[in-house]
């Protein structure tokens, strides 16, 4: 499995100068390293060649893993791999696949909450996505600021969440 951290660093548990600089700059997190270590313990990790780990977000009781490629391979048959990761990390694990369409990625992150509309807002300094979520699903989303920050990191553009 490809990832933002060198394979030697995962096996040794210590970061090289390049990966340490990434950690200091906030491009990777300790959660990335923990998940990649746990993935190394999987029996069928050879099937994860076409999957790339992009980023892991530690949300307290849950770890949200963003991948490119085949997320189903990381989940495993019947959720077998996820169960191993949950046991290794000591928390729930959820996998979201980054798609070319931002709407699909956002829908995977917010789960069953309904997206009413999604618009691009053009500002002089940048382009922003505004996602309107059904107000009845407000409790599913919880606090929207961490979600907006997470989506901004993954989609590489500002995201604003509003309720209608």
- What sort of overall outline do the alpha carbons produce when their principal axes are compared? globular
Q: Helix/strand/pairing class, anyone?
A: alpha/beta
Uncertain stretches of 5 or more adjacent residues = none
Strand order of the largest sheet: 1-2-3
N-to-C order of helices and strands: HHHEEHHEHEEHHE
Number of helices: 8
Number of strands: 6
Radius of gyration: 17 Å
Helical content (DSSP H or I, runs of 4+): 40-55%
From the N-terminal CA to the C-terminal CA, the straight-line distance is 40 Å
What composes the largest sheet? 3 strands, mixed
Provide mean pLDDT, rounded. Answer: 89
β-sheet strand percentage: 15-25%
Keywords:
40% helix, 6 strands, 24% strand, three-stranded mixed β-sheet, alpha/beta, 164 residues
